[in-house]
Amino acid sequence: MTRTNLTITVATTLLAAAPSLGCRHASARPASLATQQLVQYSGQGALFSIAGKKLGDYHLEYRREPLSRTSYRQTVTVKIPKKQPITLRCTVSVDGERWRTECGQRKGGGYCLGEGLCLDYITDDQHNAYATTIIKDGPNQMRMFRTELRKGKAVRVYRERLRRN
Fold first, then answer.
1. Which domain holds residue 40?
2. Backbone dihedral region of 52: left (phi > 0), alpha (psi from -120 to 50 degrees) or beta?
3. Which of 24, 33, 34, 110 is the most exposed place for a label (fewest CB within 10 A)?
């Protein structure tokens, strides 16, 4: 996989999980967007083959800007050493404890289960999907484990750790 493809894949899959970055730690559900201002996280990630071979490292920056009481814009920038950063944007709509994500041809959503554990699933029009488990490790940090699927078959996994700026 080229580093450019790695950048696009990482950015796309983080956008799948990014709505949970707005979850509260205690209740693990989307926070009221009416009271939220700009939220930013950053951290490191690694991409692995389905067999566990490490394919690359990257740096992530996440930004959430409220658009209304029930929606916000999220922006993810992925930086791979010696490559130009790639930035992708999505719109997230929150309905109670669930959210929907729209990023052009990629759509999906998720929900939180309590105790800092959230799930997210997003698909595209090419039969690719991204299933993500998000673990909140406190009010200002989290880990994500994401499986990339092609036509229902797991092809790569991602590991990420983000901290609130």
1. 3-164
2. left
3. 34
Question: Consecutive sets of 10 residues in the chain, 165 residues long: mean pLDDT of each?
Answer: 53 53 44 64 96 95 92 92 90 90 92 92 93 93 95 95 96
Q: How far is residue 100 from each of residues 6, 16, 126, measured CA to CA in Å?
A: 25, 10, 19
Structure tokens at 121: 């699933």
Count of domains observed in the chain: 1
Q: The CATH number of the domain where 70 resides is what?
A: 2.40.128.20
Which of 139, 131, 143 has the alpha carbon at shortest distance from 164? 139
Per-residue b or e along 83-99, where b marks 16 or more CB atoms closer than 10 Å to that residue's CB: eeebebebebbbeebeb
The predicted pLDDT at position 20 comes to: 53
Measure the CA–CA gap between 3 and 147, rounded to whole angstroms: 19
> What is the model's pLDDT at position 25?
35
Is the whole-model pTM more than 0.90?
no
Torsion angle defined by CA atoms of residues 44, 57, 65 and 93, in that order, rounded to the nearest 10 degrees: -110
